[in-house]
Design goal:
alpha+beta, 36% helix, PhnI, Carbon-phosphorus lyase, 4 strands, four-stranded antiparallel beta sheet, 375 residues, 12 helices, single chain, 12% strand
Length: 375
């Protein structure tokens, strides 16, 4: 690396930051953090998932500070998370304990527990709603006559039905006693599946979607059927310090996706392969992308990008991509001057004029091979 310090001075840098903040304020009223949390839940969910920290109000603050840049907001959350002390670890919970507010199964029409459409506009036309320009605060459900249905039913995962029939191939269990916490220990390749799922859960939504899409477009062997997609609240439990009993201290909103892949033609025992995805907040697109990538990586192929765990995990992390792409804005004066000098020297040795033609009075020399501009 050949960076040099920015010579504009601390005052100019502070003024540039002030201008950035001024752009956020503008001429309109300041947006409250609670408004962002309540009305931009998808955005805060993306920031929480990629930041690896479930904190809706902090995510709203990060989105406000980042002026709506989800990756920047995730960066702020991940940086804040790194300053927090770890007091305890929660008890593992089963996804089947989820209190689902939405559950759809494209695989089975009459799924046990029923389909729960929940809040969605998946089946409506994507047209701009100009009524929102005036900010109509009317709740269209306020006149609904809703009866109290009692305690929510615990839903059986659709894939459990396939497991009971022996139709689902179980992924190989990691040969480890405890899962590696990838927020503390770097991933080494080849990664265990728990590491893959952790990294995908913190992956950048767009990258996970794009690589999952690549498999569907033919750059892979996985075209799954979604067993179900669920959105709901999972309990967070800790062990009571005195009684030792598990105590529910909070709930986290998550999105879960499970998919089956018909790869039976490649196995002696005809079974479905399996892909899984779970992420903070409501982010169905990312959860589905995770299932495709999880199933693809289990194939352990080398020819297709989505099946190469090292390629996928090194690409989907938004913080890594964000940093490496945006570092190009930093001063590269020294390295660029070196490249300029090298190219000018080559042209001079070849006798090239400004118009690209060879100067007849100077014999042309062969180009120098192997020139590198790696900075």
């Amino acid at each position: 690396m050949g960076y040099v310090a920015v010579t504009a001075g601390e005052e100019l840098i502070e003024r540039a930051a002030d201008l950035f903040e001024s752009q956020r304020i503008g001429d309109s009223e300041d947006v409250d953090v609670d408004q962002i949390r309540d009305q931009f839940g998808r955005l805060t969910a993306q920031a929480m998932g990629e930041g690896g920290l479930y904190a809706p109000r902090l995510a709203a603050l990060a989105v406000k500070q980042a002026q709506g840049d989800a990756v920047e907001a995730a960066f702020l959350l991940r940086a804040y998370r790194s300053t927090l002390e770890r007091f305890d670890e929660s008890v593992t919970v089963e996804p089947s304990e989820m209190i689902a507010s939405r559950r759809v199964s494209p695989a089975f029409k009459d799924v046990p527990g029923g389909q729960i459409l929940g809040a969605t506009k998946d089946y409506t036309q994507r047209l701009l709603d100009f009524d929102l320009v005036d900010g109509d605060p009317t709740d269209p459900t306020e006149d609904w006559d809703v009866e109290d249905a009692g305690e929510p039913e615990r839903l059986t995962n659709v894939t459990e039905l396939l497991r009971e029939e022996g139709l689902l191939h179980e992924p190989t269990a990691p040969d480890v006693e405890e899962p590696n916490d990838t927020t503390r220990e770097s991933v080494t390749h080849p990664p265990e599946r728990d590491e893959v799922l952790q990294e995908l859960a913190r992956g950048e939504t767009g990258a996970v979607t794009a690589l999952g899409y690549s498999a569907l477009r033919g750059y892979g062997q996985v075209h799954p059927t979604l067993a179900e997609v669920r959105v709901g609240d999972l309990p967070v439990r800790i062990e009571h310090p005195y009684t030792g009993d598990d105590v529910t201290v909070a709930h986290t909103r998550v999105t879960e996706s499970e998919a089956v892949v018909p790869v039976y033609e490649k196995r002696e025992d005809p079974q479905f392969a399996f892909g899984y995805g779970l992420t903070f907040g409501r982010n169905e697109r990312k959860a589905i992308g995770m299932t495709i990538l999880d199933a693809s990586i289990q194939l352990d192929g080398e020819a297709e990008p989505a099946e190469d765990a090292e390629f996928v995990l090194d690409t989907v992390d938004g913080m890594d991509a964000f940093g490496f792409i945006e570092h190009l804005k930093l001063p590269h004066y020294v390295t660029f001057q070196s490249i300029l000098d090298r190219i000018r020297a080559i042209r001079e040795r070849q006798g090239l004029r400004e118009d690209g033609r060879v100067d007849d009075e100077q014999p042309a020399e062969p180009a120098v091979a192997g020139a590198s501009d790696d900075d």
